[in-house]
Write a structure and sequence with these properties.
Elements lengths: L3 E9 L7 H7 L2 E10 L3 E2 L2 E2 L21 E2 L3 E15 L2 E10 L7 E3 L3 E2 L22 E2 L4 E9 L1
Parallel strand pairs: 4-9
Antiparallel strand pairs: 1-2, 2-6, 3-5, 6-7, 7-11, 8-10
Length: 153
């Protein structure tokens, strides 16, 4: 992967208001963000033939360089919200909401880049550098929400 930026941000709210309601509402909140941005993964275009006779089907067609196409950029943000609820003494409850892929962006994980070639290794069709032109795309999860409860003692 050529470029990758990953980050994690956690914020825990704290309030010292003299108003009890405001203080209780604004204390005990935690927000977490997971950020992931990277250039797309490189892909090799492979032949459907064993071109060099080594019984391994991972040969490249003639005149096709290694890592010749790239998946689209991956832009992802996951978020969590936790509310701490004091019950008594050292016992507290937690309400946890987690959201995966907050902006519901389409994120490709791979495609089938095996192409038909003749026995010499020449592609039988014109090859594209656009990963969306290849069959069977797979991707990472779309938006997902998860809700949880926990008691710590």
């Amino acid at each position: 992967m050529r470029h990758s930026i990953n980050g994690n941000i956690i914020y825990i709210s704290e309030n010292h208001s003299t108003n009890d309601l405001v203080r209780h509402l604004l204390n005990g909140n935690q927000i977490g963000l997971l950020l992931q941005y990277n250039s797309g993964l490189p892909l090799n275009i492979l032949s459907n033939q064993d071109l060099n006779g080594d019984a391994t089907f991972s040969d490249q067609p003639l005149f096709i360089s290694r890592n010749s196409i790239y998946l689209p950029w991956r832009k992802n943000m996951d978020m969590s919200y936790t509310r701490f609820v004091p019950i008594r003494a050292s016992v507290r409850g937690e309400v946890i909401v987690e959201l995966k892929n907050v902006f519901n962006t389409v994120q490709m994980a791979g495609v089938n880049t095996t192409v038909k070639t003749d026995l010499a290794g020449n592609p039988l069709t014109a090859l594209s550098t656009n990963p969306l032109d290849y069959p069977n795309p797979s991707g990472f999860e779309q938006r997902k929400l998860q809700l949880g409860f926990k008691v710590r003692f």
